[in-house]
Design goal:
mainly alpha, 0% strand
Amino acid sequence: MQPNDARILRGSALAAGPVGVIAIVVSALVAGEKGLLGGVVAVAVVAVFFALGSWALMRITQNQPQLAMSAGMLVYAVQILLIGVFIVVFKNTSAFNGRAFGLTLLVTALAWVGGQIKQSLTSRMLYVDPEPSVPAARKQEADAVGTGSRDAT
């Protein structure tokens, strides 16, 4: 994992965490025990899906950074699709409050994406791998022979 990727993942979790906790508390106050359970399930779904999506994006772009934009769009689309499937599957469940689940999921997911955006915009990422134009061994040879160079006149 690249240091920038870890910072983005950490920033996303730090943005979504407090929002998720507040949403869970509000869900519990408004809808009781089922609201609490719905909020906890929603925060868990967001954490799992978005963390796995970030991990997948890091793995895809680790060796092929030129795929970052298309891979990012693909990962995001798959995340939203899987969350939609999860919502449809548990649409009529009586285990937790569906409205509390949906609203908690929405605000937590938006906070996660907002954290990703903020961290991506404020992190200092190199766009090019800094490589010396002259390999170190050849540079030492050039420095040793450099006194006889025509450019030194």
